[in-house]
Design a protein that fits this description.
There is one protein chain. The chain is mainly α and 182 residues long. Helix content is 93%, strand content 0%. The longest helix has 91 residues. 2% of the residues are buried.
């Protein structure tokens, strides 16, 4: 009889301790996952802030295009001036060449700006996709945590009720045993 009471009490204590330990481990895992998601959110925001606000004309590829265009313009202006000097061209023809070259440079800058806007749109899309992925992961994490927590509470209650029923059965059976022992 006492052995049954003691083993039932130990079973109840073990059930409660096991549930408490599992709950603490689950909470730690949840907190770690939450911290990882927060780190991803911060990293994504920093990436977006850095990339979105870049000046398209200062990028290496844009600078290369501008430098090549400027060099070509210098050569054409020099050639136009040389041709005008040798062939007796007018200042208007040199001015027209310079005007065309200036328009070519303006066109190059305009194309860079358009490409920069398209690039910014792609960066914003990628940022939003990543942000939504993080939000979805957070929601799923919290939902799984809440479901697991509810299941653990249910199991703890069921285990405690079972252990309590075992103890009650021992005491109920004890009354019958006491009559036999006396």
């Amino acid at each position: 009889m006492w052995g049954t009471i003691i083993s039932s009490a130990i079973g109840l204590a073990a059930q409660l301790y096991g549930n408490k330990t599992a709950s603490e481990a689950m909470k730690m895992a949840h907190d770690r996952s939450q911290q990882n998601l927060e780190a991803r959110r911060i990293e994504n925001q920093n990436w977006f802030d850095r990339r979105y606000n870049e000046d398209a004309t200062q990028r290496a590829d844009a600078q290369r295009i501008l430098n090549i265009t400027a060099e070509n313009i210098k050569r054409r202006n020099k050639a136009a001036a040389g041709t005008a000097a040798v062939m007796g061209g007018t200042e208007e023809s040199v001015a027209a060449t310079k005007q065309a070259n200036a328009e070519a440079l303006a066109d190059a800058v305009s194309r860079i700006a358009v490409a920069g806007d398209a690039r910014r749109d792609k960066i914003e899309d990628e940022y939003r996709k990543t942000k939504n992925g993080i939000l979805d992961a957070e929601t799923e994490l919290q939902n799984n945590y809440d479901i697991t927590k509810a299941q653990n509470v249910s199991q703890a209650i069921t285990g405690a009720a079972s252990a309590a029923a075992n103890l009650a059965g021992v005491f109920d059976g004890n009354g019958n045993n006491d009559k036999k022992d006396k």
